[in-house]
User: Fold these one by one.
Assistant:
Number 1:
Amino acid sequence: MGYSDFANIFSETKTYKSVETFAAEHRIDLAELKATTTDVFRKDGKIPAIKHVNACFNLGRPLPLLSTKNYVEQIESAINNEQYD
């Protein structure tokens, strides 16, 4: 069993809150978070964008990786769709 198999099993066994849910709980402006994360993604890429999301929450611990990864991938998809429109 490889890493991706383990990751798929792990992700199916536990659900994580979305970044949007965390933002609402911590009173973070979602529009500003999306705009700044999009800027970081365009300039520096996916991993810095994930780190940026965690830095915006300033919790002392990172948000679940699956949550931040999915959020940044949504932004990536939106950017890619803009390029093809």
Number 2:
Amino acid sequence: MDRRESELRALLKMIRDLGGSAPWPMLVNNCNKYGIPLLDLKPLLESAKRKGLIQEKAGIYSLVRFVKH
């Protein structure tokens, strides 16, 4: 697993640990605890949005729920 993929997993775990959704300031305050460099946070969020893993509404980032069959 490359660094980017590892950081993406950490981002999703962080949002999950914060209750499934979190505003930008909360993500900034907690990114270091999950090993995500602050400068990589915004590009990671954009990448996760493009992949359909999270959504953003009014500055709140939320996990998108998938049902696996």
